[in-house]
Design brief:
By secondary structure, this protein is mainly beta. It is 4% helix and 30% strand. The two termini are 24 Å apart.
Length: 121
């Protein structure tokens, strides 16, 4: 279970096994398939996921983890359709206190979307 941070160093969610994204209340919010995030609520495409980086549909960073180089990408092509929606995973065990890292300035800049806005697309 890896923490995800926003551009303000705030803990915004968790990525589990690079397959599922949970919010800070440990509610399942998205699943990852073929390096793309899809809403667990409505199966809408949220954007690419590169390792522990969540990007918006324009290729800009929404959420990050210090294990990854924080950089955006060129505007990605929209996938054709959502993959099958996996069964709801078991909620992970809560973690202790997480110290926020210093965010670097990503190439292409930060997304104008907050993490919660990104999840609600």
């Amino acid at each position: 279970m890896d923490p995800l941070f926003d551009k303000y160093r705030g803990l915004v969610g968790w990525m589990v096994n690079e397959r599922h994204i949970f919010d800070v209340q440990l509610t399942w919010m998205a699943y990852i398939k073929d390096e793309n995030a899809w809403s667990a609520v409505n199966s809408n495409w949220l954007g690419p996921v590169i390792g522990l980086l969540c990007l918006d549909r324009e290729g800009r960073v929404v959420a990050w983890n210090p294990k990854e180089k924080v950089a955006g990408i060129a505007k990605p092509e929209r996938p054709r359709r959502a993959p099958y929606r996996p069964h709801r995973p078991k909620s992970p065990s809560p973690r202790g206190r997480v110290l926020p890292p210093m965010p670097p300035a990503p190439m292409r800049g930060w997304s104008p979307l907050s993490f919660s806005e990104w999840l609600r697309q």
